[in-house]
Amino acid sequence: MFNQEIIDSFQKDLDKSNSVLVLLPPEPDEILVNSGLALYLSLKNQGKKTQIGCSKLDNPGPIKTSIGNKNLIINFQFKEKDLDKVDYDVDEQGNFQLMVKPKDGSPPPDSKNISYIYSGANADLVIVLGINSLEELGKLYSDEKKFLDQANIVSLNKDSRPGSFATHNFHTNSATSIAEVTSFLLLKTKIKPTSEAANNLLKEIYSTTNNLSTPRVTADTFEVIAFLIRNGARPPVTSTFTPTPDRLNAFPPPVFDQPTPLNQIPPAQVPSDWKKPKIFRSSPAR
Question: Does residue 247 belong to any structural domain of this protein?
Fold first, then answer.
């Protein structure tokens, strides 16, 4: 699927990376979600500091809608014209204190309207799935544009066109799905997936190939299936036909003609002279 030179180059960067960021586009389909989570779980299981992000997802679970983790931003409803000054202090226990002083006659900020967010993403390696440009990451990119424009990026995609934004491109249209691309990458880089990750990937491979019946299935597909099963995945149980009374009545058994018993076969009618002795004479000599 991918030549060894590309895999070796990625392997070197992965080995020296302590932190990895896995990113998905907004509203990803189930295949992208399960593939991203499989990478996240497997890399975390390898001891990497790993985070997974997506700016818009109905059921995020461990997937974060914001990937910044360096800077704390405090947001509250307060007009600049009412502000006298902002200052900070450190109390006797060494705790940081921020002071917002309003001008005389202006009300202080309402603590009920204070919110906190983080910004400033940081990672040694970024893995993106299913995009052809960083802008397709939506708010994740707009919030962390400076970081992502300079990041060491690995791109996985079912599109054969390489992403110009990525250092390492694992793009191909020969695979059955991006779940197969992800599985192949784990296999070739010797990253041991968790059983949950392996199960998620195998489920998507079976789903996108209609239980391995599509012509797109290749030797690579079966290679990654064996790899996933060795790491705890269980092949899905395919449905089998079970006859029910309704189905049996709908399709009655065929009726065949019964052979006639031997004692009911009438005796053969043969000419009477056939039963007389036969005399054979030679022709007279000449």
Answer: no
